[in-house]
Design goal:
four-stranded antiparallel beta sheet; alpha/beta; Aspartate Aminotransferase, domain 2; Aspartate Aminotransferase, domain 1; 2 domains; globular; 13 helices; seven-stranded mixed beta sheet; 14% strand
């Protein structure tokens, strides 16, 4: 078996970022509103919006902050119910709770996507929809948008894992009223922490900018119709969720690298997926016809395996050098809805619970070579065969 790659590290930060960071450190100009114009954060917002084909962008401290600000900027009333998929990261329902709203969870099926029958059954009882494209798996956005628009409901896209994904040729994160992205270390663009929201709604971005911490008249440094800002002066609380110039300086030189990372990430994912999908004990949910994915990791489901066999597979793969988590079996996993105790008793969502009990997650960075990917696939196949073949022989 070939030597395994380092699957932990992200790609190196481009040299251009180091020069800009050095300049900022010498100037001490780290606050986005110090400069009258052309601050790194402002430049990032303009460049990111142009790249994505959106009118406005607001860079903030995290994707969670972007989700929270989106809800507040929509002006939802206290106690508003927000429909989300039950397969997401704990920060998503947390952002809803922080915004004084109530998360409503719907079922997710074996494809890791929203169960549209359950979604439709719950949508009449909510005031907004927040769609997590969890781990880059896009739900049926045509159906989601049609159902939401028919009821006049705003749609927020949590696109933390989907930067670069296309849906019917359109960029994920630009389909709903607001799209939110992450710059956390394991995402396509890495600043350690950070996030950004996109919208074409001038009034919404004006509220979000002020809420994010554009106190006094700092909103004048944003290229939005100032009439949209002026009416909110002193009328909104300040949550101070701004991005610093240092973070923007790290992100901006990575923008030209995005297309390559998306291409290489898709190549790596599809190569490993095709190999492991040949195992009788593994299935990899395919992309939808409308979807051109930009994976930054690998997910697959284990078939016809007991809980004990699942746990043995994870342990065996780890011993062989590949770390795999099963969302529904690793302790206190923040992606298992029953661990969100801050919401109260877990809802009865048997489809999602069953899926998570067999859904595996594995790092698969875009920087890996095909040879690296083959080494990872070899471990996964060897580990599942090591666990299952003796069991099959014992029952033959």
């Amino acid at each position: 078996m070939a030597d395994l790659p380092n699957m932990h590290d992200a790609e190196p930060i481009p040299e251009a970022a180091r020069h800009e960071i050095d300049r900022l450190l010498h100037s001490g100009d780290l606050f986005r509103y110090t400069a009258p114009e052309a601050a790194p954060v402002a430049l990032l917002e303009a460049e990111f919006a142009k790249m994505m084909g959106a009118q406005y962008a607001l860079a903030v401290s995290s994707c969670s902050a972007a989700l929270f600000l989106s809800l507040k900027a929509l002006g939802l009333p206290r106690g508003a119910r927000v429909l989300i998929p039950a397969f997401t990261f704990a920060a998503v329902p947390s952002s809803i709770v922080h915004a004084d709203c109530v998360p409503v969870l719907c079922e997710v099926d074996d494809s890791y996507r929203i169960d549209m029958t359950d979604f439709e059954a719950r949508i009449d009882d909510v005031q907004a929809v927040m769609i997590s494209h969890m781990r880059g798996h896009t739900s049926d956005m045509d159906a989601v948008l049609q159902l939401a628009e028919a009821r006049g409901l705003p749609v927020i896209e949590d696109a933390a894992h989907s930067l670069g994904t296309l849906w019917n040729g359109r960029r994920i994160g630009t389909l709903g009223h607001v799209g939110c992205f992450s710059f956390q270390s394991y995402k396509m663009l890495n600043a350690g922490e950070g996030g950004i929201l996109l919208t074409d709604d001038a009034d919404l971005i004006a509220r979000a900018v002020i809420l994010s911490g554009a106190y006094e008249h700092n909103w004048k440094k944003h290229p939005v119709l100032h009439d949209a800002f002026a009416k909110w002066q002193n009328k909104l609380p300040l949550y101070n969720l701004r991005m610093s110039n240092l973070s923007a300086a790290v992100i901006r030189p990575q923008l030209p690298e995005l297309a390559r990372r998306v291409r290489d990430g898709r190549r790596n994912h599809d190569h490993v997926a095709a190999r492991i999908d040949q195992s009788p004990w593994i299935t990899v949910p395919p992309s939808l016809p409308q979807e051109e994915r930009a994976p930054d990791s690998l997910q697959f489901s284990l078939c016809d395996m007991t809980d004990a066999a699942v746990d043995a597979f994870v342990d065996t793969a780890k011993e062989m050098g590949v770390s795999i988590q099963v969302f529904g079996r690793s302790a206190d996993n923040a992606r298992a809805f029953w661990n969100w105790e801050f919401l109260g008793p877990a809802p009865d969502l048997p489809k999602t619970r069953k899926m998570l009990a067999r859904a595996c997650d594995c790092r698969l960075p875009a920087r890996l070579t095909i040879e690296d990917c083959d080494a990872v696939a070899d471990v996964i196949l060897s580990a599942v065969d090591h666990v299952m073949r003796p069991r099959m022989q014992a029952t033959a």
